[in-house]
Every structure is written in C-alpha cells, then in structure tokens.
Amino acid sequence: MGKPKEGTSHHNGQTHDKDIVKANGHAVEEDDRPFSISCEWDIKQTQQFTDDGTNTYFWRAHTVTILLILLCIVVYVGAFEKPNEDGEYNAKRGLIACIAVFLLFGVTQISDGPFKRPHPAFWRIILCLSVVYELALIFLLFQTADDARQMLKYIDKDLGKPLPEQSYGEDCRLYTPGHPKGSFHTFLEKCDVFLPAHFFGWWAKALIIRDYWLLTVISVFFEILEYSLEHQLPNFSECWWDHWIMDVLVCNGLGVYLGMKTCEYLGNKPYHWRGLWNIPTYSGKFQRVAAQFTPYSWTSYDWKATTSLKRWLAVCGIAAVFLTAELNLFYLKFILWIPPPHLIMQVRMALFLGIGAVSLNETFRYMDDPTCKRFGQQAWVVAAIVSTEVLICIKFGWETLSIPLPMHVTAFWTLSFGIWAAWTVWTFWPSIIGGFGVHHGSESKNGGISNAEHSNGVITNTEHRPKHE
C-alpha cells in the first residue's frame, strides 16, 4: 500500500473529495488517489470508499518496523542470551526460529492473494504456512517409514506408536433392547465430537466451492470411496445408515444447504465500506471492526462444467483433487500412526480450509477470466502438497495400498469410468476432433463470475462478467 499523499485533510470529521480512494481502477496519468489496492473482484471495475487514515495505516506492510523487531531479537539471542547445553532443545528452537523468520519475510514481502479480509497479511501467512507444510512433507518423503514416525515424537512424545484397528461397521443395529449400554447405544456412539466437526466442515466447503452440484458429487463419491477402500483402512468400514443418513444426508447435506444459503446471503449483500473514524457512533465503530472479518465482496461461482471439453475435464479434476486430499488425511494418519483427534490432524484440516478457499478462487479465475494467464501461487502450492502426500502414502504404505481391490469393487469402478469416458466422448466429440475445443477462457467471456454494479461505493451483484475475488 502506498503512503498517503500530502495535502489530504479532514475538517471537523468531514471527508473531502480528494480523500476518496478508488480501488481496482486502472492507473491513469492524472491519478491523485491517496493509495490504491488490488482487491478480489474485477480489476477493471472501481469501487469508491473513504480513507480517514485508518485504512492507509492498516494496509501498509510495515516492512521496516518488522525488520527492526526481528533484528533486535536476533541481536539479543546472539549477543546477550546465555547458551543452553541441551542440543535437542537448541535444535527445536532453531528450527522454530527459521520458520518464524520465513513467515515474517512472507507476510511482508510476497504478493497479495485474492482475498483482502480480515487483512492481506493473514492470507500471505496462510500461503507461507502451506509452503512450510510442503517442505515438511518433502523432508519426510526422503526418510524411511520408521524414521518418519519416530520424528513425529519431536512434536509429541506420545506419537510413534502403532494405532489399534477400529471398525465402525461391526454392529449396524439401530435398536438393541436389553443391551447394558442402552437400546440405542450403537447410534449414540456415532454422535460424538466428529458429528459437529463433520457438519461445520461441509458448511465451510460450501463457502469454498459454492456449487450444489459439485458439492453433492464430492460428498457421494467420498462415501463410495470409503466403501471401496474399507479392505485397506478398517475405519472406513461403517454401517449403511452411517454412510448415507448420518454423513450424506445429515452432516454433509445440512452443512451444504446452510453453506449455500450463506453464499446466497453474501452474494446479495450490499458492500459499502467506510473508514473507522468516519463512523460517528461507538456501536457503528464496533460493527465496522466486526465486519473486517467478513468478505470484502463476494464472487458467485458458475462452473459451467459442460460448456467445453477443457471445462469439463478441469471441473472433474477439481473434484478428483478434493477427494484425493480427503483420502490423504485418512491414509496419512493410518500410515504415520497419528490418532484421529490429534492436534496435527486438526491443524492440517484447518490449514486446508484456508488454502483451499484461496486456491479454488485462483483456479476459477484461471479457468474463467481470459485476462488471467498465470496459475495462482496458492493453487500451485496446493497441487504440490496433495501430490507429495500421495507419494508419502505410496512410499510408506505400499503394503496397504497394494492390497488388491475386491472383484465387485473393481467391476464397479471399471464400469463407472467407462460410462464417464463414453459420455465425455459422446458429448464433446466435435471438440475432441477439433483439438480440445475453444481457447482457454473464451467460453466464458460473458459469464461465470457474478459481477458487481457500483453506485456511490455500494456493490450489488447484478450481472455476469469475469472478475477477481
């Protein structure tokens, strides 16, 4: 963010015309804006909002200040701190310091992502954390399975121990009268902490994917994958009502429905931002602070999966990556002996929600905006993470992954893939002959991303054209 130009003034709390900030406007020869930012919607559009000084200060990177603080800490450690003779303690502390310095560099120096709330620095640090996670995965990939498991003891001494096998599909009776644990103990055992976590997880996925059809496909296919792979992972074995009622209908379905309703609300909400000190009341200031943790604007995704062959293959690829990332979670915790409720798994899932939101937005823009010629940085890192996780599962858990599929499972997937391939060829035969259809992004020049009409700084979704979130 650039510094405010001299001459901007506020008299008696009033904002002058020269304090108006136009975000996303193209640079012109006579541009007297105090500062400009690259926001998440169409870079060709302009929104106006007022700056009372809080925006300028809040959006500045403060690179020199952070550098000075970092140097003060390093000088203290190097010149004044008494050395510790514990080698393991020093190694852990040094590794944490290396990660912290990298995060500080990233949060101040790397380019902004597509999202600006609650602050661009938040999404920059999410990107940096995803890079750190990818580096950790690369390091594990060069170890043996036993060494990788024992290294996790540096994080938690209780790790590195084989996990007991657990199956949820042994007794599928909903009603067992006379049972010492109760007549409905089988059902009640499933209603644990993972039930609300499952629901909120799919609510968040709905905010990320923003499409009923794609969400439903991913939800149903993951349950089918659990059926198909329960011979490899015992905890994939569940009762039929746990698969289709508890998961697909209740947790996934309700989470998707409420998530899409949230998307509709955010898509129809007017967005009008003012500087904090331009708001006269304390309640208004408090609401403005709280609104900082809501979207700056909203983009509705129209995936248009069947408009071209490239589009169809891209959407199918997105679904495949989502399913692979979900499977990786279960295989990694099984192969590396990490119990399901462990903090490592919770942090991994929370990180994937953040990086998934950014990477999918970047992927959608790359698919839909003809002016976007570069694959997003977060999408690039996510592709590397998912691929590295798969390679770790193959290297460390080959004896598990190599267990052959049952004959009926092989027949099902062969038939399913054959139907998918036949439908694809039948639908896009002219595109296949013509060399994979139209050029990148050309099928969506008039649609795809819900644009915004700007009037007096208010944004309302009214028409469709490419834009950036």
Q: Key features?
A:
two-stranded antiparallel ribbon, lipid metabolism, transmembrane helix, 469 residues, disordered N terminus, mainly alpha
**Helix content range:** 55-70%
User: Outline, from the CA principal axes?
Assistant: globular
* Overall radius of gyration: 26 Å
- Overall number of strands: 6
Region (Disordered): 447-469
Transmembrane segments: 57-79, 91-110, 122-142, 312-331, 343-360, 380-398, 410-429
Function: Catalyzes a base-exchange reaction in which the polar head group of phosphatidylethanolamine (PE) is replaced by L-serine.
GO molecular function: L-serine-phosphatidylethanolamine phosphatidyltransferase activity
Describe it for me?
- This protein is mainly alpha-helical and 469 residues long.
- The protein has helices spanning 54-59, 63-80, 87-109, 120-141, 145-151, 185-190, 194-209, 212-229, 240-268, 282-291, 309-335, 343-368, 377-396, 398-401, 407-427, 429-433; strands at 10-11, 14-15, 20-23, 47-50, 450-455, 458-464.
- The protein is 55% helix and 5% strand.
- It has a two-stranded antiparallel sheet with strand order 1-2. A two-stranded antiparallel sheet has the order 3-4.
- A hairpin with a 2-residue loop joins β5 and β6 (458-464).
- The longest helix is centred in the middle third of the chain and has 29 residues, at 240-268.
- 25% of the residues are buried.
- Catalyzes a base-exchange reaction in which the polar head group of phosphatidylethanolamine (PE) is replaced by L-serine.
